[in-house]
Structure formats: structure tokens, C-alpha cells
Design goal:
The protein has five helices and six strands. By secondary structure, the chain is α+β, with helices and mostly antiparallel strands. It has three domains: 57 residues, no CATH class; 73 residues, no CATH class; 41 residues, no CATH class. The strands form two sheets. A three-stranded antiparallel sheet has the order 1-2-3, with no helix packed on it. Strand 2 and strand 3 form a beta hairpin. It starts with 28 loop residues before the first strand and ends with a strand.
Length: 205
């Protein structure tokens, strides 16, 4: 007996590279395979500006390109500067880099990243002789980059070496914030011969 019910059919969406050449996707759209390792998945799209993975659906991708968050990250054409021609600013000395890293680590441990905007201005106002913090130019964007791309890889490397073949406990939790961004947090705890316990927290999208 034939059934009158219609069978639903699941359509698997596949990322198409030709989308990248269309005007609405130029400069920001790429395959999820080109995303950082932590964000990669079997199939999908990646926004290089917003740094989020997206469903490989053309209408959804176009809708994302029209959001205010995405438009705000589109860079305006930059003017030619000396740094574009290989000139290195004397301000970027070794001491200023060390200062930036130390402040970024402090913020990561004790405060929200937005606090660095006020902390930087406060330190420069305290330094009346303009010796220590005269060239301090650390704000939330740069601070986040230092934490994510400089401090975190070093801590992760030390963590892997410290754990070695030791036993450890792992707690995993996930959540979604008000911007619909999904986060997952890993809490790892293990024992070291020289220290009673060692804990490490890592989180990511």
C-alpha cells in the first residue's frame, strides 16, 4: 500500500569556492579549512573579519555580510605610511614589548580586557617624568591579540611539557553568550613533583 506521506529530504550544504569571487564575499569569505585549527570543522565557511564559522548556505552568508558587526570590521583603505615601506618605528623597542606582555598577562589574570584602555591612560598620567610609560600604546584590541597569539601559545607549550605522561582530571563546560557565540571551557588539574597541584583553564569558541 502506497503511503501518502511525503518523505523529507535532508540537503547537505557544501561550501563553494566560487562564492569568494562574488562582490558581497570578496576579501572576507573562505573555506573553514583555512580557519585556525581550533575552529575547523568538516564542512563550512569562515569569516576572516569576524573570526567565526558559518553554515555553507549562500543566503545565510549574504545575510551575515549585511550585519552591523561585520560591516564594522571592514577596513577602510589605508594611507601609505613609512611602515608600509619597511620603516621600523623606534618606539617598538624590546622594553616596550616586554611591558605590553606583562600588562596583558596582568589583565588576563585579574580583570576584563576592556580595563586596559583606562589602565594605560592612568599609567601615563602617573608617569610625570615620561620615562616609563611615555610610549605605552596598549588598548583592548592589541591586548587581546597579545593574550591570544603571544601568551597563550607559550602557556600551552609549558602546560604540555609539565603534564607529560602524568595523570590529570579534565572538566569541560560549554555555553552561549548573548551574541549567540558558542564557547567551550576546559579546566585541567594535575599534580607536579615540585608543586602540590597545578590548574589550567583554557577557553575558546
Amino acid at each position: 500500500m502506497a503511503s501518502g506521506a511525503k518523505k523529507s529530504r535532508l540537503i547537505e550544504r557544501i561550501y563553494r569556492q566560487q562564492w569568494e569571487k562574488e562582490p558581497w564575499a570578496e576579501g572576507w569569505l573562505t573555506s573553514i579549512g583555512n580557519a585556525p585549527t581550533a575552529y575547523q570543522s568538516p564542512n563550512g565557511a569562515w569569516c576572516k573579519l569576524c573570526r567565526i564559522n558559518l553554515a555553507p548556505h549562500k543566503k545565510d552568508l549574504k545575510r551575515h555580510s549585511e550585519t552591523e558587526k561585520h560591516k564594522g570590521k571592514i577596513k577602510t583603505p589605508t594611507q601609505n605610511t613609512l611602515t608600509n615601506y619597511g620603516y621600523v618605528d623606534a618606539v617598538a623597542t624590546q622594553k616596550s614589548k616586554i611591558l605590553d606582555i606583562k600588562l596583558a598577562v596582568f589583565i588576563a589574570k585579574h580583570a576584563a580586557v576592556t580595563a586596559i584602555d583606562h589602565l594605560s591612560e592612568l599609567l601615563k598620567s602617573i608617569d610625570q617624568n615620561k620615562v616609563l610609560f611615555e610610549n605605552l600604546k596598549l588598548h583592548r584590541t592589541k591586548c587581546s591579540g597579545i593574550i591570544k597569539y603571544v601568551v597563550t601559545p607559550c602557556i600551552l607549550k609549558d602546560l604540555v611539557e609539565a603534564v607529560g605522561n602524568s595523570k590529570f582530571s579534565l572538566i569541560v563546560d560549554e555555553s552561549t553568550d548573548i551574541s549567540q557565540t558558542q564557547w567551550i571551557c576546559f579546566f585541567q588539574q594535575f599534580a607536579q613533583p615540585t608543586v602540590s597541584t597545578y590548574s589550567h583553564i583554557n577557553s575558546g569558541q
